[in-house]
Amino acid sequence: MFLQNGAGMIEDANTFLWPDPHVRPNYVTGVISHGITLNRPFDITHTGPAATSVGPVPREDGDTAQPLSRLLDILPLAHRLKCQAYSWPTILQVQLEKLACNALSNPICALEDAVTAYILSIPETNMRLMQEISSVILALPELQGVEGVKERFSAKSLHHTVMDIIQKNRATTVSMVWDMRNRRETEIRYINGYWARRGREVGVRTPLNDELVERVQEMTADKLRGAGS
């Protein structure tokens, strides 16, 4: 099961762990919107109940094993998780919405060492990034022909969705800020790096995502060098 801030980890797992699709395990992917605080490794405080959305990742051979179907039936029975299972096209869209939000809040707040509310002070950057991401999403081959995608992921609609999330979480400190403060590697490759990579695949330019990846990687390298000196 892959529950992460970014996207692209499954592709890495396929490449480095299970390159043979015939022996590859079944995957479940998902999004958690619960509020949590990491006090220290393996010590987490549940600060705000919300939802967990999960769904199966399609196999190359088109065969979803029965145990995976049972897992998706059982998870919603854990009421504390507030879990809902969805089909692949639906869970993919939920994941892309969260990834768009993370691509805005994480790198910019990390570069500014700021809480999420900082995003509200840069409306032109917000809209520019959402336009880039919208263009990538609407060109993704896996979403072609899926009903409602054009409306849900238009630049205007995506901007509205993401800014609503930002507004509700304005007082939070995103994970990439904590990574920077603690001189840890960030997930930038799986957040803005994902949009940049998918943009190249579908022929959509992503200069702002490219710039954010570069700046975060440079700052991370500087902090890691400083930690080792």
Automatic annotation (TrEMBL):
Q: Which residues form the Ketopantoate reductase C-terminal domain?
A: 91-218
- Record GO terms (molecular function): 2-dehydropantoate 2-reductase activity; NADP binding
Spell out the family assignment given in the record's similarity comment: Belongs to the ketopantoate reductase family.
Coiled-coil stretches: none
What is this protein identified as? Answer: Ketopantoate reductase C-terminal domain-containing protein
One Pfam family of this protein, by short name? ApbA_C
Q: Which residues form the Ketopantoate reductase N-terminal domain?
A: 1-58
Q: Which UniProt keywords apply?
A: NADP, Oxidoreductase
Can you name a GO cellular component term? mitochondrion
